[in-house]
Design brief:
The mean pLDDT is about 95. The chain has one domain: Fumarylacetoacetate hydrolase, domain 2. The longest helix is centred in the middle third of the chain and has 9 residues. Strands 2-1-12-5-6-9 form a six-stranded mixed beta sheet, covered by helices on one side. It has a four-stranded antiparallel beta sheet with strand order 11-10-14-15, with no helix packed on it. It has four helices and 15 strands. With about 200 residues, the protein is mainly β. Helix content is about 15%, strand content about 35%. β10 and β11 form a beta hairpin.
Length: about 200
Amino acid sequence: MKIIGIGKNYVNDTSEIAAIKTGAQTIFTKPDSTLVTDNRDIGFPKITNQLAYEVELVAKIGKRGKDIALNDAESYISELAVGIDYTAKDVLAASRENKGPWALAKGFDGASPISGFKPIADFKDLGSINYDLKINGAQKQVGNTSLMIYSFAEIIAYISSFMTLEAGDLIFTGTPASGTGLVVKGDHLQASIEGELLLDFKMV
C-alpha cells in the first residue's frame, strides 16, 4: 500500500486556476507507518517544534492501473476519507537548506491520520465536495473540490504515468489554499465531509 500526496493543489478562487495549471503536479510519497486510523489520539512527535496541519480529502484506489486514461480515472476510486497531512516545518526548513527532500518532514510516525472511508457512490459530483477542519471547536479550514487545480482524475492519470497504482493505495489530494497553521499538544482536531464528522482525535 502506497500513500501519495499532491502539494499546492488548491486556489482561493477558480479564476486563478488557468494561470497556475502547467501540468507539472507536485507529488510526494509517505510511508505506511505514518497512517493513523480509528480516530486514535496522536502523540506529538519529538522530532519537531513546528507541526503544521493540512486537511485533505483522501482517495482510495480500488483496482490496479498503469497509464490510466483521464476519462477513465475516476472509476479507479473506490472510497473517500478525510485526513490530515502533517508537516514538521522546522525539519522541512533544515532539509531545504541543503536542497534535500520532503521525506522526513512528512514521513514521521503519525503524520497521516485519516477517517473511516465512505463509498464513492455516496458522492454525486466529485467536482463539488465540501469538507472542513475545526481545531478546539474553531473553524480553521474550509474546502470544496471545485477549487482544486488538478482534479481527482487528473491526479490519478498523472501519477499512474509514473507508477502502477494498486488497490488500497491512498492519495492525499491537496489542502485548501487558506487556513493552514500549527498544532500543539492538547489540540482537538475534527474534520468533516459534507457536514458529517468523520475524523476526531487529539494531539497528546
